[in-house]
Amino acid sequence: MTLYGANPDELERLGTTLHQQIAAVDAVTAVVTQTLAGTTWMGPARDRFEHDWQGSFRSVLTRLVEAFAAAGADCTARAHDLRRVMGP
Fold first, then answer.
1. pLDDT tens track for 2-58
2. Closest by CA position to 69, among listed 6, 21, 13, 24
3. What is the CATH number of the domain that holds 62?
4. Which of 11, 25, 33, 36 would be 79's cystine partner, CB 3.0–4.6 Å?
5. Number of domains the chain is built from
6. Cα(21)–Cα(83) distance, rounded to whole angstroms?
């Protein structure tokens, strides 16, 4: 027999951790964007990196933030639901 379930406290901590990591990802995005903008660098290598940064790299980081937000909210909601069902 397979059992399913979760510890609501641990699940809520996971949700909180995921939400906190959004700030870390946002910080990486901001630092790289600002640093790149302030860097004297010309040529095909910069063009490639900037194209990748503005395209696929930032897109991946945006999707990561969205995934952390959705999963964090889901974990928090499930923890709340578990507590409601389990009682005091």
1. 667 899 999 999 999 999 999 999 999 999 999 999 999 999 999 999 999 999 999
2. 21
3. 1.10.287
4. 11
5. 1
6. 25
